[in-house]
Design brief:
87 residues; globular; mainly alpha; 5 helices
């Protein structure tokens, strides 16, 4: 039994939040918990799955591409550290 798919309204809300959370000058983790009732880890799991969905790309292509680039950059940094390649 897998987890139910994120509803359209919820994933759009997540993308809308991700696009604008920093404008309020609040810390992200408390804002995520207050708005979605999720831990930061769970929120990022959902966000990472979400940005791979075609409908997310269609909804906000600029944001989704930016989030994908950030995710890939973080992955490269983590792998480089593990391999001892970071200076």
């Amino acid at each position: 039994m897998g987890e139910p798919a994120t509803s359209d309204e919820r994933w759009q809300d997540i993308l809308d939040f991700e696009r604008s959370w920093w404008k309020g000058r609040v810390r992200k983790e408390p804002a995520v918990r207050a708005r979605f009732g999720l831990s930061a880890a769970r929120y990022h799991q959902l966000l990472n799955r979400l940005i791979d969905r075609p409908e997310a790309l269609e909804y906000d292509p600029v944001l989704v591409q930016r989030l994908r680039r950030l995710r890939e950059s973080r992955r490269r940094t983590r792998f480089a550290r593990r391999l001892g390649l970071e200076g």
